[in-house]
Write a structure and sequence with these properties.
By secondary structure, this protein is mainly α. It has one domain: Amino acid/polyamine transporter I (Up-down Bundle). It contains 18 helices and no strands. It is globular and about 60 Å long. Belongs to the peptide transporter carbon starvation (CstA) (TC 2.A.114) family. It is a multi-pass membrane protein. Pfam families: CstA. Its main location: membrane. This is Carbon starvation protein A.
Length: 483
Amino acid sequence: MYTFLAGIALLIIGYFTYGKFIEKLFGVKQERATPAYVNADGVDYIPMSTAKNSFIQLLNIAGTGPVFGPIMGALYGPAAFIWIVVGCIFAGAVHDYLTGMISIRNRGAHLPELASKFLGKVMKHIVNAFAVLLLLLVGTVFVSTPASLLHLLTDGSVAVWIFIAAIFVYYIVATLLPVDKIIGRLYPYFGALLLLSALGVGVGLVVTGAPIPELSLQNFHPDHAPIFPLLFFTITCGALSGFHATQTPIISRTTKKEKEGRKIFYGMMIAEGIIAMIWAAAAMSMFDGYQGLSDILAAGGPGAIVSESSTVLLGAIGGTLAVLGVIVLPITSGDTAFRSARMIIADYLKIAQKKLSSRLWIALPLFAISVVLTQIDFNILWRYFSWANQATAVIALFVGAMYLYIAKKNYFVSLIPGTFMLVMVIAYILSQQIGFGLPMNVAWAGGVIGTIILLVLFFKAAKKARANNVPLEEDISNWDSAA
């Protein structure tokens, strides 16, 4: 219990200390106009309040990641708590803040545009394809998981395909309508439900004195579980997730002032870390040890853990509300995944999005592909999503490092977590069956050598960019209306 409570306390302290440090390092310009006003188009560029933007950002980035990921990560024991806390404060929240703020300084640009500007034009095409693939996988996964949870909630009386169809209909509407019509109006309520359900489970764990494992040298992780690199791909959204880099530009286009960035981008990542801590603790403590947890996961997946934990701790009514809060997570990330994909493709092809027809012909093919992907086994989709997700996080962290390097600021705050994760990404794809299936020692060697090569290329490009005075932000006077 002490490890769990200390972890949550550290996350909160991290927001007020390291978050403030990152904000000061970046250098907020309170007087600078934001894309929400300069590029206002009534569809994607619309000024909204800090509270609305914060809740929308939380729901956009959350998905099932801070719930399902930590539940599966609980099999690694208290080591999961370390990754959530350290990863969230020093990697995930930095990743989200820098991505959001750099986007604000550059017309609300998505990651492919930022990668093109700061890492080279070739990267625009690579990251564009990578980001759209990632968003399609996310959107598809976040159709299947809430449909399965709703199927469980109705005791199997309603077929899964009916929920899948209903969710797709919602996604189409939410993707096409202006951001303030559905997302801006409903998400604050969904956000409140999410936070209340997670806090309810957390308070229940404390009140009931749940036997949450403590961190110690003897109890670091059970049965010598292979933490490196698997833990960092099992727990993603609760610590570090590249998916967030595809979501923050949605809110960078609706943020009124740069000063709001720490609350919206850094702060909501911290909130997600707290949610991850709660669900990891619940999974570790409520199922008669790691073997019991493993058995339930094998039988019913993370959804079964959510349902049983919520009901035991909060009763029938409270448990149902908690499950609904978890169901909201993937749905409210799935719709914005498709929305982001539409926006990225529109930016890539330079197609204005004010007309409904322009949005429609981009979005409908995405949904058609996603329907086909729902036929693929969920576990296979999730493995590819996990790798693509963390690879995207590496790209976003290197974009942040390049920005700070050109600005002659402390770029190590982004480069260090980016470098660490790059080693993991290369080693993972080299060692796993979804990749090359090489022996682990060969994969580690490849990870280190590959990272060194890419770091040399990074510094070579960084020195050239600084010498050429690559502009860190776009001149507002040159911005045209996105209409």
